[in-house]
Amino acid sequence: MKLILLGAPGAGKGTQAEIVSRKLSIPTISTGNILREAIKNGTETGLKAKGFMDKGELVPDEVVVAMVKERLAEPDCQHGYILDGFPRTVAQAEALDQIAHIDVALNIDTPDDIIIDRLSGRRVCAECGGTYHTSLLKEDKCPACGGAVYQRDDDKPETVTNRLAVYQEKTAPLIDYYQKKGILSTADCRGTIEENYRAVKAALEAKKQ
């Protein structure tokens, strides 16, 4: 299965991608990881991307698409893959159509108030990098290593609200794009990780029928 995960930041895409990847034995492909790998390996597109990043500029769509194309040609993608974080815009989706046939675009649908609570309650350990929610912390220390925990700037409520606004403007139109193509499926992911996976599984199975 060739799958795209759509959803706002904090909707739980990464968590569900990890579970689906394990269950279906297909890789999860994130553009952030592709970018880092391509630069580390010194590929032609990686060097192009590095040139833009070194100048503090956004990597152009054509370079990102070229890197995705390189990654999808690798052997582990033969039987399917999950795209997480790409495409982000309709222009990227149109470019992706030229290099891949996607089976399902799965929308991880989570209400904004739940996303704001999830992200603004997230704390990260300064020592080991562990991530926790304040509801599970008894004190401002990491349960795993005892290190101090802190809130990332992009998890502060006002920043989260802004990130959601950007998502609605730039990325939400993809839902309509894939709806018109007839490959959109939606999973209501307002529950626990296990409940959300059951919703994801049902949404994927509905598209197989």
Can you lay out the helices and strands and say which pair or pack?
Layout: E1 2-6, H1 13-24, E2 28-30, H2 31-41, H3 44-54, H4 61-72, E3 81-84, H5 90-97, E4 104-109, H6 112-120, E5 122-125, E6 131-133, E7 149-150, H7 157-170, H8 173-181, E8 184-188, H9 193-208
Parallel strand pairs: 1-3, 1-4, 2-3, 4-8
Antiparallel strand pairs: 5-6, 5-7
Helix pairs in contact: 1-9, 2-3, 2-4, 3-4, 4-5, 6-7
* Average pLDDT, all residues: 91
What's the overall geometry? globular
> How do the strands line up in the largest sheet?
2-3-1-4-8
Count every helix, treating DSSP H or I runs of 4 or more residues as helices: 9
**Ranges with pLDDT <50 over ≥5 residues?**
none
**Major beta-sheet overview:** 5 strands, parallel
Q: Kindly, what is the distance between the CA atoms of the first and last residues, rounded to a whole number of angstroms? A: 13 Å
Radius of gyration over C-alpha positions, nearest whole angstrom: 18 Å
